[in-house]
Amino acid sequence: MELWFTEEHTDDVRFSIKVEKSLYSKQSKYQNIDVLQTKSFGRMLVLDDSIVISEKDEFIYHEMMVHVPMMVKPDIKRVLVIGGSSGGCVRELIKYDTIEQIDVVEMDEELVQVCKKYFPKIARSFKDERVKQIIGDGLKFVRKKDDVYDLILVDSTDPFGPQESFFTREFYGHCSRALTEQGIMVTQQESPFYPHTANAMHRAVRRMEELFPEVQLYQAHIPSYPAGYWLFGFASHYDNPVHNVDTRAWLSLKIKTHYYNEYIHFGSFAIPNYVMEDLENDTQSQ
Amino acid sequence: MELWFTEEHTDDVRFSIKVEKSLYSKQSKYQNIDVLQTKSFGRMLVLDDSIVISEKDEFIYHEMMVHVPMMVKPDIKRVLVIGGSSGGCVRELIKYDTIEQIDVVEMDEELVQVCKKYFPKIARSFKDERVKQIIGDGLKFVRKKDDVYDLILVDSTDPFGPQESFFTREFYGHCSRALTEQGIMVTQQESPFYPHTANAMHRAVRRMEELFPEVQLYQAHIPSYPAGYWLFGFASHYDNPVHNVDTRAWLSLKIKTHYYNEYIHFGSFAIPNYVMEDLENDTQSQ
User: Fold this and answer.
1) Chain B within 8 Å of A107 (Cβ-Cβ)?
2) 3-state percent breakdown (helix, strand, coil) of chain A, nearest 5
Protein backbone atom coordinates (compact mmCIF):
# COMPACT_ATOMS: atom_id res chain seq x y z
CA MET A 1 0.00 0.00 0.00
CA GLU A 2 1.21 3.50 -0.80
CA LEU A 3 0.83 6.23 1.79
CA TRP A 4 0.78 9.86 0.65
CA PHE A 5 0.61 13.04 2.70
CA THR A 6 -1.15 15.91 0.96
CA GLU A 7 -0.96 19.55 1.96
CA GLU A 8 -3.59 21.86 0.49
CA HIS A 9 -1.86 25.04 -0.66
CA THR A 10 -5.25 26.41 -1.71
CA ASP A 11 -8.65 24.76 -2.22
CA ASP A 12 -7.46 24.00 -5.76
CA VAL A 13 -3.75 23.26 -5.34
CA ARG A 14 -2.30 20.23 -3.57
CA PHE A 15 1.26 19.20 -2.79
CA SER A 16 1.72 15.49 -2.05
CA ILE A 17 4.70 13.57 -0.73
CA LYS A 18 4.95 9.80 -0.56
CA VAL A 19 5.34 8.60 3.01
CA GLU A 20 7.60 5.70 3.92
CA LYS A 21 6.33 5.61 7.48
CA SER A 22 4.21 7.61 9.89
CA LEU A 23 6.40 7.86 12.99
CA TYR A 24 4.13 9.88 15.27
CA SER A 25 0.57 11.16 15.04
CA LYS A 26 -1.22 12.73 17.98
CA GLN A 27 -3.41 15.67 18.92
CA SER A 28 -1.67 17.79 21.54
CA LYS A 29 -3.40 20.41 23.68
CA TYR A 30 -2.85 22.92 20.85
CA GLN A 31 -2.56 21.13 17.51
CA ASN A 32 -2.23 17.92 15.50
CA ILE A 33 1.39 16.80 15.53
CA ASP A 34 2.64 14.38 12.86
CA VAL A 35 6.12 13.11 12.11
CA LEU A 36 6.52 11.44 8.72
CA GLN A 37 9.45 9.64 7.14
CA THR A 38 9.72 10.41 3.41
CA LYS A 39 12.23 9.69 0.69
CA SER A 40 12.34 13.05 -1.11
CA PHE A 41 12.25 15.30 1.96
CA GLY A 42 13.61 13.04 4.71
CA ARG A 43 11.85 13.25 8.06
CA MET A 44 9.10 15.88 8.24
CA LEU A 45 7.26 17.65 11.05
CA VAL A 46 3.66 18.40 10.12
CA LEU A 47 1.43 20.57 12.34
CA ASP A 48 -2.32 20.74 11.59
CA ASP A 49 -1.63 19.25 8.13
CA SER A 50 0.97 21.89 7.17
CA ILE A 51 4.63 21.02 6.66
CA VAL A 52 6.65 22.91 9.27
CA ILE A 53 10.10 21.44 8.71
CA SER A 54 11.64 18.79 6.49
CA GLU A 55 15.16 17.46 7.00
CA LYS A 56 15.89 18.18 3.36
CA ASP A 57 15.27 21.92 3.32
CA GLU A 58 14.84 23.18 6.92
CA PHE A 59 18.35 24.65 6.74
CA ILE A 60 17.11 27.27 4.27
CA TYR A 61 14.40 28.61 6.57
CA HIS A 62 16.55 28.57 9.71
CA GLU A 63 19.64 30.11 8.08
CA MET A 64 17.55 32.92 6.64
CA MET A 65 15.88 33.62 10.01
CA VAL A 66 19.21 33.92 11.82
CA HIS A 67 22.08 35.02 9.57
CA VAL A 68 20.28 37.96 7.96
CA PRO A 69 19.92 39.88 11.27
CA MET A 70 23.37 38.66 12.44
CA MET A 71 24.98 40.13 9.30
CA VAL A 72 23.23 43.46 9.97
CA LYS A 73 24.15 43.61 13.67
CA PRO A 74 27.05 41.28 14.56
CA ASP A 75 27.14 42.46 18.21
CA ILE A 76 23.81 40.83 19.09
CA LYS A 77 24.16 39.30 22.56
CA ARG A 78 20.69 38.44 23.87
CA VAL A 79 18.18 36.63 21.68
CA LEU A 80 14.56 35.58 22.17
CA VAL A 81 13.09 32.86 19.93
CA ILE A 82 9.30 32.63 19.98
CA GLY A 83 8.24 29.15 18.86
CA GLY A 84 11.31 27.50 17.44
CA SER A 85 10.65 24.16 19.07
CA SER A 86 12.74 22.22 16.53
CA GLY A 87 15.96 23.91 17.56
CA GLY A 88 16.82 24.93 13.99
CA CYS A 89 17.13 28.63 14.80
CA VAL A 90 19.11 27.82 17.94
CA ARG A 91 21.49 25.63 15.91
CA GLU A 92 22.29 28.63 13.70
CA LEU A 93 22.49 31.10 16.61
CA ILE A 94 25.05 29.08 18.60
CA LYS A 95 27.46 29.36 15.66
CA TYR A 96 28.15 32.88 17.01
CA ASP A 97 30.51 32.91 20.00
CA THR A 98 29.47 36.48 20.78
CA ILE A 99 25.86 35.57 21.58
CA GLU A 100 25.49 35.25 25.36
CA GLN A 101 21.85 34.33 25.98
CA ILE A 102 19.19 32.53 23.93
CA ASP A 103 15.69 32.23 25.42
CA VAL A 104 13.27 29.95 23.53
CA VAL A 105 9.57 30.14 24.41
CA GLU A 106 7.22 27.46 23.09
CA MET A 107 3.77 26.80 24.48
CA ASP A 108 3.33 23.19 23.35
CA GLU A 109 5.35 20.94 25.63
CA GLU A 110 4.38 17.85 23.68
CA LEU A 111 5.80 19.39 20.51
CA VAL A 112 9.07 20.11 22.30
CA GLN A 113 9.35 16.47 23.35
CA VAL A 114 8.45 15.21 19.85
CA CYS A 115 11.17 17.37 18.29
CA LYS A 116 13.77 16.12 20.77
CA LYS A 117 12.85 12.51 20.07
CA TYR A 118 12.42 12.59 16.28
CA PHE A 119 14.80 15.39 15.24
CA PRO A 120 17.71 14.81 17.65
CA LYS A 121 20.36 16.24 15.31
CA ILE A 122 18.56 19.58 15.21
CA ALA A 123 17.34 19.58 18.83
CA ARG A 124 20.76 18.86 20.32
CA SER A 125 21.48 22.57 19.91
CA PHE A 126 19.31 23.08 23.03
CA LYS A 127 22.14 21.54 25.08
CA ASP A 128 24.29 24.63 24.54
CA GLU A 129 24.66 26.28 27.94
CA ARG A 130 23.55 29.69 26.64
CA VAL A 131 20.10 28.31 25.77
CA LYS A 132 17.12 28.40 28.11
CA GLN A 133 13.94 26.65 27.02
CA ILE A 134 10.71 27.99 28.48
CA ILE A 135 7.32 26.31 28.12
CA GLY A 136 4.76 29.07 27.95
CA ASP A 137 2.77 31.55 25.91
CA GLY A 138 5.14 33.72 23.88
CA LEU A 139 2.77 36.68 23.99
CA LYS A 140 2.53 36.62 27.78
CA PHE A 141 6.29 36.07 28.09
CA VAL A 142 7.31 38.98 25.90
CA ARG A 143 4.74 41.30 27.50
CA LYS A 144 6.78 41.34 30.70
CA LYS A 145 10.06 42.27 29.02
CA ASP A 146 11.42 45.76 28.56
CA ASP A 147 14.65 46.70 26.75
CA VAL A 148 16.10 43.18 27.12
CA TYR A 149 16.73 41.51 23.75
CA ASP A 150 18.93 42.54 20.83
CA LEU A 151 17.09 40.13 18.53
CA ILE A 152 13.63 38.53 18.61
CA LEU A 153 12.93 35.73 16.13
CA VAL A 154 9.23 35.03 15.65
CA ASP A 155 9.55 31.44 14.46
CA SER A 156 5.81 30.82 14.41
CA THR A 157 3.47 28.62 12.42
CA ASP A 158 0.73 30.01 10.16
CA PRO A 159 -1.39 33.03 11.13
CA PHE A 160 -4.55 30.92 10.87
CA GLY A 161 -3.92 28.45 13.70
CA PRO A 162 -3.07 28.49 17.39
CA GLN A 163 -0.28 31.02 16.81
CA GLU A 164 -2.48 33.70 15.25
CA SER A 165 -1.59 36.01 18.17
CA PHE A 166 1.99 36.24 16.86
CA PHE A 167 0.76 38.28 13.88
CA THR A 168 -1.17 40.92 15.89
CA ARG A 169 -0.43 44.57 16.54
CA GLU A 170 -0.49 43.85 20.28
CA PHE A 171 2.23 41.21 19.96
CA TYR A 172 4.47 43.36 17.74
CA GLY A 173 4.06 46.19 20.26
CA HIS A 174 5.30 43.97 23.08
CA CYS A 175 8.24 42.84 20.93
CA SER A 176 9.11 46.45 20.13
CA ARG A 177 9.30 47.26 23.84
CA ALA A 178 11.18 44.06 24.70
CA LEU A 179 13.91 44.98 22.22
CA THR A 180 16.94 47.09 23.04
CA GLU A 181 17.21 50.45 21.27
CA GLN A 182 19.02 48.99 18.26
CA GLY A 183 17.24 45.62 18.45
CA ILE A 184 15.87 43.69 15.48
CA MET A 185 12.72 41.59 15.11
CA VAL A 186 12.54 38.94 12.38
CA THR A 187 9.25 37.22 11.55
CA GLN A 188 8.18 34.49 9.16
CA GLN A 189 5.69 36.06 6.75
CA GLU A 190 4.23 33.27 4.61
CA SER A 191 4.17 32.99 0.83
CA PRO A 192 3.24 36.05 -1.22
CA PHE A 193 1.86 34.06 -4.17
CA TYR A 194 -1.47 32.60 -3.11
CA PRO A 195 -4.00 35.31 -2.13
CA HIS A 196 -4.98 34.11 1.38
CA THR A 197 -1.40 34.01 2.68
CA ALA A 198 -0.48 37.16 0.75
CA ASN A 199 -3.31 39.02 2.50
CA ALA A 200 -2.12 37.78 5.90
CA MET A 201 1.35 39.08 5.03
CA HIS A 202 -0.05 42.48 4.01
CA ARG A 203 -1.85 42.83 7.35
CA ALA A 204 1.25 41.83 9.32
CA VAL A 205 3.49 44.27 7.42
CA ARG A 206 1.07 47.15 8.04
CA ARG A 207 1.00 46.36 11.76
CA MET A 208 4.80 46.23 11.95
CA GLU A 209 5.09 49.50 10.04
CA GLU A 210 2.95 51.22 12.68
CA LEU A 211 5.53 50.28 15.31
CA PHE A 212 8.92 50.15 13.57
CA PRO A 213 10.39 52.88 11.35
CA GLU A 214 12.34 50.27 9.37
CA VAL A 215 10.36 47.31 7.98
CA GLN A 216 11.64 45.29 5.02
CA LEU A 217 10.57 42.00 3.45
CA TYR A 218 13.10 39.41 2.39
CA GLN A 219 12.67 36.06 0.69
CA ALA A 220 14.00 32.55 0.17
CA HIS A 221 13.41 29.52 -2.06
CA ILE A 222 11.97 26.86 0.31
CA PRO A 223 10.74 23.92 -1.81
CA SER A 224 8.55 22.23 0.84
CA TYR A 225 6.55 25.42 1.52
CA PRO A 226 3.60 26.68 -0.58
CA ALA A 227 4.72 28.04 -3.98
CA GLY A 228 8.30 27.24 -2.88
CA TYR A 229 8.49 30.94 -2.11
CA TRP A 230 8.70 32.26 1.44
CA LEU A 231 8.92 35.74 2.94
CA PHE A 232 10.44 37.02 6.16
CA GLY A 233 9.92 40.38 7.84
CA PHE A 234 12.82 42.47 9.15
CA ALA A 235 11.81 45.20 11.64
CA SER A 236 14.03 47.61 13.51
CA HIS A 237 14.02 51.05 15.09
CA TYR A 238 17.49 51.64 13.85
CA ASP A 239 19.10 49.54 11.11
CA ASN A 240 18.34 49.29 7.44
CA PRO A 241 19.27 45.69 6.56
CA VAL A 242 20.85 46.53 3.20
CA HIS A 243 22.69 49.85 3.67
CA ASN A 244 25.96 50.03 5.62
CA VAL A 245 26.17 46.27 6.16
CA ASP A 246 29.74 45.14 6.87
CA THR A 247 30.04 41.89 4.89
CA ARG A 248 33.77 41.59 5.63
CA ALA A 249 33.14 41.49 9.36
CA TRP A 250 30.62 38.68 8.90
CA LEU A 251 32.89 36.77 6.50
CA SER A 252 35.75 36.97 9.03
CA LEU A 253 33.62 34.89 11.44
CA LYS A 254 33.77 31.98 8.95
CA ILE A 255 30.22 30.83 9.76
CA LYS A 256 29.42 27.69 7.76
CA THR A 257 26.13 27.88 5.85
CA HIS A 258 24.47 25.80 3.13
CA TYR A 259 22.07 28.38 1.71
CA TYR A 260 22.97 31.83 3.01
CA ASN A 261 25.94 33.88 1.84
CA GLU A 262 26.76 37.58 1.52
CA TYR A 263 25.27 37.78 -1.98
CA ILE A 264 22.07 36.03 -0.89
CA HIS A 265 21.81 38.62 1.91
CA PHE A 266 21.35 41.51 -0.50
CA GLY A 267 19.53 39.44 -3.13
CA SER A 268 16.93 38.30 -0.60
CA PHE A 269 15.74 41.91 -0.17
CA ALA A 270 15.14 42.27 -3.94
CA ILE A 271 11.38 41.68 -3.97
CA PRO A 272 9.47 41.23 -7.26
CA ASN A 273 7.33 44.10 -8.47
CA TYR A 274 4.08 42.15 -8.20
CA VAL A 275 4.64 41.38 -4.51
CA MET A 276 5.25 45.05 -3.68
CA GLU A 277 2.35 46.23 -5.88
CA ASP A 278 -0.07 43.78 -4.24
CA LEU A 279 1.07 45.03 -0.84
CA GLU A 280 0.61 48.69 -1.81
CA ASN A 281 -2.78 48.13 -3.47
CA ASP A 282 -4.08 46.12 -0.52
CA THR A 283 -2.94 48.84 1.90
CA GLN A 284 -4.63 51.60 -0.14
CA SER A 285 -7.91 49.67 -0.26
CA GLN A 286 -8.12 49.47 3.57
CA MET B 1 -17.04 15.25 -10.63
CA GLU B 2 -13.73 16.88 -9.75
CA LEU B 3 -10.93 16.86 -12.31
CA TRP B 4 -7.34 17.22 -11.10
CA PHE B 5 -4.14 17.47 -13.12
CA THR B 6 -1.10 16.03 -11.35
CA GLU B 7 2.52 16.67 -12.30
CA GLU B 8 5.09 14.30 -10.82
CA HIS B 9 8.03 16.39 -9.62
CA THR B 10 9.79 13.17 -8.58
CA ASP B 11 8.54 9.60 -8.14
CA ASP B 12 7.61 10.63 -4.59
CA VAL B 13 6.43 14.23 -4.98
CA ARG B 14 3.28 15.34 -6.78
CA PHE B 15 1.83 18.76 -7.53
CA SER B 16 -1.89 18.78 -8.31
CA ILE B 17 -4.15 21.53 -9.63
CA LYS B 18 -7.91 21.35 -9.85
CA VAL B 19 -9.10 21.63 -13.43
CA GLU B 20 -12.23 23.54 -14.34
CA LYS B 21 -12.15 22.33 -17.93
CA SER B 22 -9.87 20.50 -20.32
CA LEU B 23 -9.85 22.75 -23.40
CA TYR B 24 -7.52 20.77 -25.67
CA SER B 25 -5.83 17.39 -25.47
CA LYS B 26 -4.01 15.87 -28.41
CA GLN B 27 -0.82 14.04 -29.33
CA SER B 28 1.10 16.07 -31.91
CA LYS B 29 3.94 14.72 -34.02
CA TYR B 30 6.33 15.51 -31.14
CA GLN B 31 4.47 15.55 -27.82
CA ASN B 32 1.22 15.45 -25.87
CA ILE B 33 -0.33 18.90 -25.86
CA ASP B 34 -2.92 19.80 -23.21
CA VAL B 35 -4.61 23.09 -22.44
CA LEU B 36 -6.36 23.23 -19.08
CA GLN B 37 -8.52 25.90 -17.49
CA THR B 38 -7.83 26.19 -13.73
CA LYS B 39 -8.88 28.57 -10.99
CA SER B 40 -5.58 29.04 -9.14
CA PHE B 41 -3.29 29.28 -12.18
CA GLY B 42 -5.68 30.40 -14.94
CA ARG B 43 -5.20 28.74 -18.31
CA MET B 44 -2.27 26.32 -18.47
CA LEU B 45 -0.25 24.77 -21.29
CA VAL B 46 0.92 21.26 -20.40
CA LEU B 47 3.37 19.34 -22.61
CA ASP B 48 3.98 15.64 -21.91
CA ASP B 49 2.39 16.07 -18.46
CA SER B 50 4.67 18.96 -17.43
CA ILE B 51 3.36 22.49 -16.89
CA VAL B 52 5.02 24.75 -19.45
CA ILE B 53 3.13 27.98 -18.87
CA SER B 54 0.30 29.16 -16.65
CA GLU B 55 -1.45 32.49 -17.15
CA LYS B 56 -0.87 33.26 -13.47
CA ASP B 57 2.92 33.09 -13.39
CA GLU B 58 4.28 32.88 -16.96
CA PHE B 59 5.29 36.54 -16.72
CA ILE B 60 8.00 35.59 -14.23
CA TYR B 61 9.71 33.09 -16.53
CA HIS B 62 9.44 35.27 -19.65
CA GLU B 63 10.57 38.49 -17.96
CA MET B 64 13.60 36.73 -16.49
CA MET B 65 14.55 35.22 -19.88
CA VAL B 66 14.45 38.59 -21.65
CA HIS B 67 15.18 41.53 -19.33
CA VAL B 68 18.29 40.07 -17.71
CA PRO B 69 20.29 40.01 -20.99
CA MET B 70 18.69 43.28 -22.13
CA MET B 71 19.89 45.01 -18.93
CA VAL B 72 23.41 43.70 -19.59
CA LYS B 73 23.51 44.67 -23.26
CA PRO B 74 20.87 47.29 -24.14
CA ASP B 75 22.08 47.59 -27.77
CA ILE B 76 20.86 44.09 -28.74
CA LYS B 77 19.35 44.33 -32.22
CA ARG B 78 18.93 40.80 -33.59
CA VAL B 79 17.40 38.05 -31.47
CA LEU B 80 16.80 34.34 -32.03
CA VAL B 81 14.25 32.53 -29.85
CA ILE B 82 14.49 28.72 -29.96
CA GLY B 83 11.14 27.24 -28.91
CA GLY B 84 9.10 30.06 -27.43
CA SER B 85 5.90 29.04 -29.15
CA SER B 86 3.69 30.83 -26.62
CA GLY B 87 5.01 34.24 -27.58
CA GLY B 88 5.86 35.16 -23.98
CA CYS B 89 9.51 35.93 -24.73
CA VAL B 90 8.50 37.86 -27.84
CA ARG B 91 6.01 39.93 -25.82
CA GLU B 92 8.86 41.03 -23.54
CA LEU B 93 11.33 41.57 -26.42
CA ILE B 94 9.04 43.90 -28.39
CA LYS B 95 8.99 46.29 -25.42
CA TYR B 96 12.42 47.41 -26.70
CA ASP B 97 12.19 49.81 -29.66
CA THR B 98 15.88 49.22 -30.40
CA ILE B 99 15.41 45.55 -31.28
CA GLU B 100 15.19 45.21 -35.07
CA GLN B 101 14.73 41.50 -35.75
CA ILE B 102 13.23 38.60 -33.76
CA ASP B 103 13.38 35.11 -35.32
CA VAL B 104 11.38 32.41 -33.49
CA VAL B 105 12.05 28.78 -34.42
CA GLU B 106 9.64 26.10 -33.17
CA MET B 107 9.44 22.61 -34.62
CA ASP B 108 5.87 21.72 -33.55
CA GLU B 109 3.45 23.50 -35.85
CA GLU B 110 0.47 22.13 -33.95
CA LEU B 111 1.79 23.67 -30.73
CA VAL B 112 2.12 27.04 -32.46
CA GLN B 113 -1.52 26.88 -33.56
CA VAL B 114 -2.70 25.78 -30.10
CA CYS B 115 -0.89 28.72 -28.48
CA LYS B 116 -2.42 31.20 -30.94
CA LYS B 117 -5.91 29.83 -30.30
CA TYR B 118 -5.83 29.35 -26.52
CA PHE B 119 -3.36 32.04 -25.40
CA PRO B 120 -4.26 34.89 -27.78
CA LYS B 121 -3.19 37.65 -25.38
CA ILE B 122 0.35 36.28 -25.26
CA ALA B 123 0.56 35.12 -28.88
CA ARG B 124 -0.56 38.45 -30.32
CA SER B 125 3.03 39.60 -29.86
CA PHE B 126 3.84 37.56 -33.00
CA LYS B 127 1.98 40.22 -35.01
CA ASP B 128 4.78 42.72 -34.42
CA GLU B 129 6.43 43.37 -37.78
CA ARG B 130 9.92 42.62 -36.46
CA VAL B 131 8.96 39.03 -35.66
CA LYS B 132 9.44 36.11 -38.06
CA GLN B 133 8.06 32.73 -37.01
CA ILE B 134 9.83 29.71 -38.51
CA ILE B 135 8.56 26.14 -38.21
CA GLY B 136 11.61 23.92 -38.04
CA ASP B 137 14.29 22.22 -35.98
CA GLY B 138 16.12 24.82 -33.89
CA LEU B 139 19.34 22.80 -33.98
CA LYS B 140 19.38 22.63 -37.77
CA PHE B 141 18.37 26.29 -38.05
CA VAL B 142 21.09 27.62 -35.79
CA ARG B 143 23.75 25.38 -37.40
CA LYS B 144 23.58 27.45 -40.56
CA LYS B 145 24.07 30.78 -38.82
CA ASP B 146 27.37 32.54 -38.27
CA ASP B 147 27.88 35.85 -36.42
CA VAL B 148 24.23 36.84 -36.82
CA TYR B 149 22.45 37.22 -33.47
CA ASP B 150 23.18 39.49 -30.51
CA LEU B 151 20.97 37.34 -28.29
CA ILE B 152 19.80 33.72 -28.43
CA LEU B 153 17.06 32.65 -26.00
CA VAL B 154 16.83 28.88 -25.60
CA ASP B 155 13.21 28.74 -24.45
CA SER B 156 13.05 24.95 -24.46
CA THR B 157 11.10 22.33 -22.54
CA ASP B 158 12.79 19.74 -20.27
CA PRO B 159 16.08 18.03 -21.22
CA PHE B 160 14.36 14.62 -21.04
CA GLY B 161 11.87 15.01 -23.89
CA PRO B 162 11.84 15.89 -27.58
CA GLN B 163 14.01 18.98 -26.92
CA GLU B 164 16.93 17.10 -25.36
CA SER B 165 19.12 18.31 -28.24
CA PHE B 166 18.90 21.86 -26.86
CA PHE B 167 21.04 20.84 -23.87
CA THR B 168 23.92 19.28 -25.87
CA ARG B 169 27.47 20.45 -26.46
CA GLU B 170 26.81 20.39 -30.20
CA PHE B 171 23.86 22.76 -29.89
CA TYR B 172 25.68 25.19 -27.61
CA GLY B 173 28.58 25.17 -30.10
CA HIS B 174 26.27 26.17 -32.92
CA CYS B 175 24.77 28.91 -30.75
CA SER B 176 28.22 30.20 -29.87
CA ARG B 177 29.07 30.54 -33.57
CA ALA B 178 25.67 32.03 -34.46
CA LEU B 179 26.22 34.81 -31.93
CA THR B 180 27.96 38.09 -32.68
CA GLU B 181 31.23 38.73 -30.84
CA GLN B 182 29.54 40.30 -27.84
CA GLY B 183 26.41 38.15 -28.11
CA ILE B 184 24.60 36.50 -25.20
CA MET B 185 22.90 33.12 -24.90
CA VAL B 186 20.24 32.59 -22.22
CA THR B 187 18.92 29.11 -21.46
CA GLN B 188 16.30 27.67 -19.12
CA GLN B 189 18.14 25.34 -16.74
CA GLU B 190 15.52 23.52 -14.65
CA SER B 191 15.20 23.37 -10.87
CA PRO B 192 18.34 22.77 -8.79
CA PHE B 193 16.49 21.14 -5.89
CA TYR B 194 15.46 17.65 -7.03
CA PRO B 195 18.46 15.50 -8.00
CA HIS B 196 17.43 14.44 -11.54
CA THR B 197 16.91 17.99 -12.79
CA ALA B 198 19.91 19.27 -10.79
CA ASN B 199 22.11 16.73 -12.55
CA ALA B 200 20.80 17.79 -15.95
CA MET B 201 21.64 21.38 -15.01
CA HIS B 202 25.17 20.40 -13.97
CA ARG B 203 25.79 18.70 -17.33
CA ALA B 204 24.44 21.68 -19.27
CA VAL B 205 26.56 24.16 -17.31
CA ARG B 206 29.74 22.13 -17.91
CA ARG B 207 29.00 22.03 -21.64
CA MET B 208 28.41 25.77 -21.78
CA GLU B 209 31.60 26.43 -19.82
CA GLU B 210 33.60 24.56 -22.46
CA LEU B 211 32.39 27.03 -25.06
CA PHE B 212 31.83 30.34 -23.28
CA PRO B 213 34.32 32.10 -20.99
CA GLU B 214 31.48 33.69 -19.03
CA VAL B 215 28.76 31.35 -17.71
CA GLN B 216 26.56 32.34 -14.78
CA LEU B 217 23.41 30.86 -13.29
CA TYR B 218 20.53 33.03 -12.23
CA GLN B 219 17.22 32.18 -10.57
CA ALA B 220 13.56 33.06 -10.10
CA HIS B 221 10.62 32.08 -7.93
CA ILE B 222 8.17 30.36 -10.34
CA PRO B 223 5.38 28.75 -8.29
CA SER B 224 4.01 26.42 -11.00
CA TYR B 225 7.43 24.84 -11.66
CA PRO B 226 9.01 22.03 -9.57
CA ALA B 227 10.16 23.24 -6.15
CA GLY B 228 8.95 26.72 -7.20
CA TYR B 229 12.61 27.38 -7.93
CA TRP B 230 13.93 27.80 -11.44
CA LEU B 231 17.38 28.46 -12.88
CA PHE B 232 18.52 30.17 -16.05
CA GLY B 233 21.94 30.08 -17.68
CA PHE B 234 23.68 33.25 -18.92
CA ALA B 235 26.54 32.59 -21.38
CA SER B 236 28.70 35.12 -23.17
CA HIS B 237 32.13 35.55 -24.72
CA TYR B 238 32.27 39.04 -23.41
CA ASP B 239 29.96 40.34 -20.68
CA ASN B 240 29.77 39.51 -17.03
CA PRO B 241 26.07 39.98 -16.20
CA VAL B 242 26.67 41.60 -12.80
CA HIS B 243 29.73 43.82 -13.19
CA ASN B 244 29.53 47.13 -15.05
CA VAL B 245 25.82 46.91 -15.68
CA ASP B 246 24.25 50.31 -16.34
CA THR B 247 20.97 50.18 -14.42
CA ARG B 248 20.23 53.85 -15.11
CA ALA B 249 20.27 53.26 -18.86
CA TRP B 250 17.76 50.42 -18.46
CA LEU B 251 15.56 52.42 -16.07
CA SER B 252 15.46 55.31 -18.55
CA LEU B 253 13.69 52.99 -21.03
CA LYS B 254 10.74 52.76 -18.59
CA ILE B 255 10.04 49.10 -19.48
CA LYS B 256 6.99 47.90 -17.54
CA THR B 257 7.55 44.63 -15.68
CA HIS B 258 5.64 42.70 -13.01
CA TYR B 259 8.49 40.60 -11.57
CA TYR B 260 11.82 41.92 -12.82
CA ASN B 261 13.48 45.11 -11.56
CA GLU B 262 17.04 46.36 -11.18
CA TYR B 263 17.38 44.84 -7.70
CA ILE B 264 16.03 41.47 -8.87
CA HIS B 265 18.67 41.58 -11.62
CA PHE B 266 21.57 41.42 -9.18
CA GLY B 267 19.72 39.33 -6.60
CA SER B 268 18.93 36.66 -9.18
CA PHE B 269 22.65 35.91 -9.59
CA ALA B 270 23.04 35.32 -5.81
CA ILE B 271 22.90 31.51 -5.85
CA PRO B 272 22.64 29.51 -2.58
CA ASN B 273 25.74 27.71 -1.37
CA TYR B 274 24.20 24.25 -1.72
CA VAL B 275 23.42 24.78 -5.40
CA MET B 276 27.00 25.85 -6.17
CA GLU B 277 28.49 23.08 -3.99
CA ASP B 278 26.37 20.39 -5.69
CA LEU B 279 27.51 21.73 -9.07
CA GLU B 280 31.19 21.69 -8.06
CA ASN B 281 31.00 18.25 -6.44
CA ASP B 282 29.21 16.75 -9.41
CA THR B 283 31.80 18.22 -11.78
CA GLN B 284 34.70 16.86 -9.72
CA SER B 285 33.18 13.37 -9.64
CA GLN B 286 33.04 13.19 -13.46
Assistant:
1) no
2) 35, 30, 30
> pLDDT tens-digit profile of B167-182?
889 999 999 999 999 9
Residue B211 identity (one-letter amino acid): L
* Number of H-type helices and E-type strands within chain A: 10, 12
- Answer whether B266 sits within 8 Å of A266, measured CB to CB: yes
At position B205, the amino acid (one-letter code) is: V
d(CA A32, CA A92): 27
Q: Which of B270, B262, B179 is nearest to B218 (CA)?
A: B270
**CA-derived radius of gyration, chain B:** 18
Asked whether B159 and B204 are in contact (CB, 8 A), the reply is: yes
When pLDDT is cut at 50, 70 and 90, the band that residue A82 belongs to is very high
The nearest CA of chain A is from the CA of B146 a distance in Å of 37
Residue B126 DSSP class: G
Contact A267 B272 (CB under 8 A): no
Chain A residue with Cα closest to B19? A12
State the DSSP code for B167. G
Closest alpha carbon within chain B to A5:
B13
Which stretch of DSSP H or E encloses residue B200?
helix B195-211
Rounded to whole angstroms, how far apart are CA atoms B228 and A56?
A: 15
Model pLDDT for residues A198-218, shown as the tens digit of each residue? 999 999 999 999 999 999 999
Q: Are strands A3-10 and A13-27 parallel, antiparallel or unpaired?
A: antiparallel
Chain A interface, mutation test: which of B263, B265, B278, most A Cβ atoms within 10 Å?
Answer: B263
Position B167 scores a pLDDT of 84
Q: In what order do the strands lie in the sheet with A131-135?
A: A131-135, A101-106, A78-83, A149-155, A179-188, A229-236, A214-221
**Please, which residues have CB within 8 angstroms of residue B284's CB and are 6 or more apart in sequence?**
none
Interface touch B267/A272, C-beta < 8 Å: no
The C-alpha atoms of residue B203 and residue B282 are separated, in whole angstroms, by 9
Nearest CA in chain B to A277: B258
Q: Per-residue pLDDT tens for A136-192?
A: 999 999 999 999 999 999 998 877 777 788 888 999 999 999 999 999 999 999 999
Residue of A nearest to B266 (CA): A267
Indicate the residue of A194, A258, A272 with minimum beta-carbon distance to B259. Answer: A272
ipTM: 0.95
A263 at B interface, C-beta within 8 A: yes
Contacts of A219 in chain B (CB under 8 A): 221
Query: What is the average pLDDT across B36-40?
Result: 97
What is the structure's pLDDT at A55? 97
Contact A43, A23 (CB under 8 A): yes
From chain A residues 195-224, the ones with a CB under 8 A of any chain B CB are 219, 221, 223
